[in-house]
Amino acid sequence: MLAHLLAGALAPAFVRAWGARAFLALAVAPAAAFVWALVHAREAIEGTRIERMSWVPALGIDLTFTLGTLQWALTLVVAGIGALVLIYCAWYFGDDEPGLGALSGTLTAFAGAMLGLVWADNLLVLYVFWELTTVFSYLLIGHDPTKRSARSAGMQALIVTTFGGLAMLVGILLLRAETGTYSVLTLLAEPPSATTTVSVAVVLLLLGAVTKSALVPFHFWLPGAMAAPTPVSAYLHAAAMVKAGVFLVALLAPALAGIPGWREITLPLGVLTMLLGGWRALRQYDLKLLLAYGTVSQLGFLLTLVGIGTRSAALAGLAMVLAHALFKASLFLVVGVVDHQTGTRDLRKLSGLRRSMPVTAVAALLAGLSMAGLPPVLGFVGKESAYAAMLDVAQGGDGTGLPVFAGWLLLVGVVAGSALTVAYTARFLWGAFADKPDVEPTEVRPFGAGLAGAPVLLAGLGFVLAFLGTPMTAALEPYSTQFPLGAHDSYLALWHGLEPALALSAVSVVVGLLLFRFREGFASFQASVSPTASAERGYQASVRALDRLAVEVTGFTQRGSVGIYLAVILMVVVVLPGSALVARTSWSGTLVWWDTPFQLVLAVVTVVAAVLTARSRRRLRAIILLGVTGYVTAGLFMLHGAPDLAVTQVLVETVTIVIFVLVLRRLPEHFTDRPLARSRYWRMGIAVLVAASFAGFLLVAAGARVADPVSIGFPEAAVGFGGGKNIVNVTLVDIRAWDTFGEVAVLVVAATGVASLLFIDTRSAGIRRVHEIPYPENVQKVPTSAGRRVWLPGPRTLAPDRRSIIFEVVTRLIFHTVMLVSLYLLFAGHNNPGGGFAAGMVAGLALMVRYLAGGRYELDEAAPVDAGVVLGIGLFVAAASALAPMAFGGAVLQSAVIDLAVPVLGDIKLVTALFFDIGVFLIVFGLMLDLLRSLGAGIDRHIRREERELTETRSIPGAIT
Amino acid sequence: MTVDLTLLLTAATMVGVGTYMLLERSLTRVLIGLVMLSNGINLGFLVASGPAGDPPLLSRYDAATISDPLPQAFVLTAIVITLGTVSFILAMAYRSWQLTGADDVQDDVEDASIRRLAAADEASEGFDLGESRSPDDEDDEIPEELGRERETR
Fold first, then answer.
1. Which residues partner with A911 through β-bridges?
2. Does A330 have pLDDT greater than 80?
3. Residue B41 lies in a domain
């Protein structure tokens, strides 16, 4: 199996190297499996070969592969026919066939998946392979993506079989819930008792089998699947995929056939499918479609047989599975030959092939006899046994408990189905090979043994096996003996003697031939009763209804307006948790007006500024008022006893205002003017409700604060483990450092996002130093003294009217001090207010001052590095310091305190968490640098470009400005 | 537990104004609303974190009188994250202005087209994949493409 998947993966390479001949190499894989199965025949028949591997023990999933009689027979079918089909492909396809690599790979992998399905013991593993075959078959049916019919047929097959597969999965899980096992072997050993749950599980499992094996009402996908290339059809629709359903039923029948629901589904659906398929097959003119409906019919028959659950029916069913695989694959390959050599499959256009391709015709005849159930071929042997088994059921139930009328109905249905089978077989053979008086003999291109070999071999095998009834009985009996002893001891043979079954065979053959003889009359009868409704139309209607529903739902929920989405989210906040507030009655807290009266002053300022912000129509004013609320918030933090927060808030507020202003210089001065819409009052209403709910949440949360907080141990931990006295900082870099790490990672992403929005392609347009920049127009360099360099050289790149001498002087004065403060904050943060965040902000502000004083080249001068590099190094330092303790046997992010004796400074206590803080510092600094480069220098550049374009248009004479 | 009413009402006001501005169309105002909302919520953290106290600095104050440090660590993180978010949305507003000349949030065009389909009771554009001309429906004629499969080679 692994070899198949491997071969499948390598297939495209093979095809590139050897063209269509690569199929020969690929055929080795299934051929090997076939030989392997033959070698292990004795083992499989006498006992069950089991190979077990553990896969997901927690879910009870293990890779157990079993090889019992049923599996052995199916392996021979799947692998043998797989090998022959692959060999056939080598002659069928030309080297220039588009998509041949994918096709060959998928086909080989499909064979592997099918083998896995057959061998799997664990039902979940079986399900995995089951769905693999579904997916592969989808790829195979939709082989030619340029054809609409192929695409839609593939999609249809995928939807239908996946639907059944999912139902089956639920069935498997239910069965497990009831019996406690996924193992088929265990299920067979201890059949579950008939409870309602098991019945439901059985119905769901059968739904999977019924969709996969294309039974009514899901039969329509199979003829549609004929869009696949013919060899693929031969394999999928004769040997493999559709047999999966039959296999599943046959596998579980010994354990579950007695459960209510099993026979009620398999038998009526089987017989109905047999009749419907035969009926439809008689109306086809395309040989391939005729065979496809024939397959539908046969699958119904097979499922009926293996679903009955008596010993003789099981034996007959298994024999029929073999026979069907042989004759149907053979016939499909014959159609492939005919199509390949004549260019048509329309039986009205074909004539005289009996003489022009005699060998193929004989093979088709043998296979056709088998399909029709005529001696002396395997199909006859199987059908004879099937009749005998069903007679037993009809006469006395044969242990199934079926009422007599049901048994007879079953028998009559199957005989009628067989008559239709005989009729469409005759139609097929006549249509493909007969001389038709009013049709010109079809021209046939000569072909070699490669194409004809596989169908001839398969048909011949069906002929030979017919005479090997006794050894076949011996080989297949271990499967059927799982069922209780029946009314008669059954065996497979060409000649059972003059029994009622023979009479039934004769009846069906005679009726079938009569139907064929009077085909014109019967066809017009069929046309007159042809139903207008079909399962396919039902499928289409339901798919369309589903799509319509999706459109309606999407149209209703996806309004496309962010405002509406937000409003919905906020209303949910108000309605759901808010209504819980109303229901809450007891509250155990005390209210005070304020902690300090000064708070009230700040609060009034905040509220006034907030309301003014909302009313402001000018951007700049709104920003400044926002800043006011921000700074006042910092004051409130301070009064509450949170200096770290206050420091950070002030810094962030400053940065926020500056970057706002940097961007707003480009945006219009006023907000877009909108008339006072009614929606405004809606927004106000929502805002008031949200604010009220929020206040309520806070009250409840504060009132519920009765237990000791988590942080009660923090002071001790901060000093003991973190080696710091500023608890907030220690919390950030030690106790809850994982959070901080995640947060700085978000900062890196945000910075990168900003840069990519501004620069679109790369982070920055390169860093240019001041000495590379020419002086602006009308500015002359006035040398002072030679060799003297100016600190803060950037401003000279600015136009004179943009420079501010005072600002430059102030910058010269404070820059270094600010940087020192930043360093102080970084190192002092562990014991006093400060830390990496604040330090990074302060350093960033220092940069900002230089940028504002000296323009974008001064920024490059101050920090001639790419912001991305700084961010990257910062993240690396933080990660490395988090992981470093592991090298010394500690836990991730563990801190250690190192005492250093430095000669001048005295003893320094170095906490390793400082390195983490340095990482944070670098990231915040990088963020600031990135913001300045993007929103500052980047926008500068955009402005410059626009100005230049403007002047250029002006300078072109006659240009329209 | 004591609740500081001034702080509570200030926080609620900021949240209310923030929400009001968040629901507007101009990205700049949305952004201002977002900042205001964040500040209000940060204040709310303090309200819910118990009474005011001394700064949590053990070098100067006693562990018994300090305010709860854990919510402060949360809020510190939140403040910095807000800066990241604000700068990102600001860049978006700028880009939106560059592309469309306004920083207003536009309604989604695709969603509008789906709404049109829904109003007209039509199926979606991708629906034709599920639709097929079935062999079932054509008893008298081989589907063109099926019959031609080999000829295309």
1. A897
2. yes
3. yes
Residue B114's domain comprises: 109-148
Instruction: State the total domains in chain B.
Output: 2
Cβ contact A758–B114 (<8 Å): no
Structure tokens that stand for A498 in this block: 């003059």
- Do B85 and B115 reside in the same domain of the chain? no
Q: What is the mean pLDDT of residues A563-574?
A: 87
**CA–CA separation, A811 vs A819, rounded Å?**
12
- Give the integer Cα–Cα distance in Å for B81 and B75: 10
Rounded to a whole number, what is the distance in Å from the CA of A199 to chain B's nearest CA?
Answer: 33
Answer positive or negative: Cα dihedral of A376, A380, A382, A385: negative
Structure tokens at A317: 């069913």
Distance from CA of B65 to the nearest CA of A (A): 10
At B57, which CATH number?
A: 1.10.287
User: Judging by DSSP bridges, how do beta strands B2-4 and A590-592 pair with one another?
Assistant: parallel
Closest approach of B142 to chain A, Cα-based (Å)? 6
Instruction: Report phi then psi at A122, rounded to 5.
Output: -75, 130
In this structure, the answer to whether residues B84 and B128 fall within a common structural domain is no
Distance of alpha carbon A788 from alpha carbon A32, whole angstroms: 87
Angle (CA) A487 A491 A497, round 5°? 90
Chain B residues near residue A670 by CB distance under 8 angstroms: none
Instruction: Find the closest chain B residue to A671 by CA distance.
Output: B26
Residue B40: which pLDDT band, with cuts at 50, 70 and 90?
very high
**Interval A327-340 mean pLDDT:** 88
Integer CA distances (angstroms), B40 to A369, A689, B7, in order: 86, 15, 10
Distance from CA of A945 to the nearest CA of B (A): 13
CB A222 within 8 A of CB A135: no
Among the three residues B60, B75, B100, which one is the final residue of a domain in this structure?
Answer: B100
pLDDT in tens, A769-787: 776 777 766 666 665 665 5
Q: Both B137 and B74 in a single domain?
A: no
C-beta atoms surrounding B65 within 10 Å = 11
- Model's pTM, two decimal places? 0.66
Torsion, Cα A111 A114 A120 A122, to 10 degrees, reads 130
Which candidate in B87, B107, B145 is best for mutational testing of the A interface (most A CBs within 10 A)? B87
| Dist. CA B36–CA B82, nearest whole Å | 10
Give A930's Cβ-side CA count (13 Å radius). 33
Same domain, B10 and B75: yes
Helices and strands (H, E) in chain A, number of each type: 37, 5
Identify the CA nearest to B83 among candidates A170, A404, A658, A673. A658
* CB within 8 Å: A637 and B46: yes
Inter-residue contact A101 to A15 (CB < 8 Å): yes
In single-letter form, the type of residue at position A713 comes to G
The domain locations on chain A are 1-260, 267-551, 725-770+791-954
Residue A666's pLDDT band (cuts 50, 70, 90): confident
Residue A65 Cα distances to A125, A134, A749, angstroms: 10, 20, 49
How confident is the model over A31-84, as pLDDT tens digits? Answer: 888 888 787 777 777 766 677 766 666 666 777 788 888 888 888 888 888 888
Task: Give the residue from B80, B82, B104 with the most A CB atoms within 10 Å of its CB, the best one to mutate.
Answer: B80
Prior bond of A217 cis (ω within 30°): yes
Tell me, rounded to whole angstroms, the distance of Cα A725 from its chain centroid.
Answer: 51
Q: Tally Cβ neighbours within 10 Å of residue A549.
A: 10
Token pair for residue A83? Answer: 């090998």
Assess contact for A37 and A44: CB atoms under 8 A: yes
* % of chain A residues with pLDDT over 90: 12
Q: How far does Cα A606 stand from its chain's mean position?
A: 51
Q: Which residues of B touch A649 (CB under 8 A)?
A: 42, 79
